[in-house]
Each structure stands twice: as C-alpha cells, then as structure tokens.
Amino acid sequence: MSELLPGLAGSLLLMTLLWAISVPLRNVSIIDLFWGPAIALCGVVYWLNATDPQLRGSIAIGLALLWAVRLGAHLAVRNHGKPEDRRYVAMRERNDPGFWWKSLYLVFWLQGLLAWIVGVPLYGAVASTNALNALDFIGVAVVVGGFLWESLADWQLAAFLRRRDNEEAVLSSGLWRYSRHPNYFGEFCVWWGFWLIALAGGAWWTVIGPLLISFFLLKVSGVTMLEDDIADRRPAYKDYVKNTSAFFPWPPKHDP
C-alpha cells in the first residue's frame, strides 16, 4: 500500500492545482481534460519510483501516456470556448453558496481518488519482475484495439457534430451503428487490457481498476447519465435506442 501512495499524492496534487485554476474561471469542467492525464500521472510516478523498471512497466506507461494525451487533446478541442458543462452547472446550483471551495472535494479530490484507483493496474505492471509472456501481448493488443476504437468513435462523432443540420440529429452510422456509446466501449477495453498486462505480471488484485471504471461507464457517469434526458432533447433517439446496443457492439435489430 505504501508504494501506491505516491501515485495518490501525485493525482491529488494535480487536482488541487486544477481546482485553484477553476475558481477564478468559475468553470470546473476543466477537470474533464485532465481525467486521463491524472491516471497516467499515477503510472509515471510508479515508474519513476521503481528501482529497476522492467519492459512490462515501460510498455504499460507508454501506452497509458499515449491514451491520456489523445483523450485530453480531444476533449480540449471539443470543449474549447464552451461554457461549464451542464452536469457541473447543476452541481453548482445544488451546492451554492460556497461551491467554489466545496468543489475541491466534491469534484477534484474525488476524481483524483478515482483516477488513482483506476490506474492501479499500471502499478501492477511496473512493480512486476516476471518475464514477459503471452498474456502481456494479449493485454497490449486489447489496449491498442480499445484505443483505436475509442479514437475512431470520437473522430466520427466530432465529424458528425460539425456537419449536422439540426440539434436533434442522431449519429447512427459507423461504429455508432453497432453501439450507442462506442467511445466508452473503447475505454472499457483499454483498462481491461491494462489489467491483463498487470495480471501477466502476477498482480491479479489490480482488477479493482477496470471494475471501477466499468461501473462508472455503465451505471454512473457514462451511459446512464448521458441517456437520462437525451430522448427528451432528441426524439429520434428513442428509435435509436430500440435498434442499437447500449454499450457492447452488436448488429442493429433492423436498419431504419
């Protein structure tokens, strides 16, 4: 446990700095840009603290940095010039007065803690001294596949949003034909892939990381939250729901 604490310290320090920036901006949405980097930062801290970093850990941290930079850059471009996300606006309204300081623990420290837990497989990969084996290659393949799937889904959505004619239009082509949230499925694969790498090194207990992010993607901040009122804002989404798998890719029930 003591070897994991530096990762937690790094994540919380980053989140505290982001909170200090968010206060004068009155916009806590900036945390979304640093969710991926906060996880990767934990891995970098473990790697820097390792006495003799092995190839398994170096591969895992390299992949984590690639994933984090891509995700952070994507969100930075997508959110540029936009006001605070409506989720945080609602949170601000519920917790005023004093949201400026409450957000430190309600938003930033909480997400810093979650990022640390999700990144535990990175510690498992770095701490292992076992020789590379077939499971490592399977894990790397799952991480890379999930990364490419998530990246393509985000690119398709961004292109659709640029060319759509009205706010009620629904994307139902490309990867979005087979899943209503292919970007989240890609992230799901990324973190189960990292766990396979950690498992190859003997750190089976790091399964807490992918289990946590799977729970959030499926039941909390992912599918459930996004679909809470989307059908009210986009009536065509009801037919999309009937035809398309919510998360795991699957052929649609029938083409519209």
Quick structural gist:
The chain is mainly α and about 260 residues long.
Which structural traits does this protein have?
256 residues; mainly alpha; 13 helices
Description of the molecule:
There is one protein chain. Helices cover 70% and strands 0% of the residues. It contains 13 helices and no strands. It is globular and about 55 Å long. The model has no long low-confidence stretch (mean pLDDT 92).
Blueprint (SSEs and pairs):
Elements: H1 5-25, H2 30-33, H3 35-49, H4 55-79, H5 86-95, H6 99-118, H7 120-127, H8 134-163, H9 182-200, H10 208-219, H11 223-226, H12 230-233, H13 237-243
Helix pairs in contact: 1-3, 1-6, 3-4, 3-6, 3-7, 4-7, 4-8, 5-6, 7-9, 8-9, 9-10
Helix content: 55-70%
Residue ranges: pLDDT <50 for 5 or more in a row?
A: none
Radius of gyration: 19 Å
- Derived structural class: mainly alpha
Alpha plus pi helix count: 13
What percent strand? under 5%
Major beta sheet summary? none
Q: Oligomerization state of this entry?
A: single chain
* Cα-to-Cα separation, first versus last residue: 53 Å
Strand/helix succession: HHHHHHHHHHHHH
How does the overall form come out from the CA principal axes?
globular
Strand element count:
0
Instruction: Quote the average pLDDT.
Output: 92
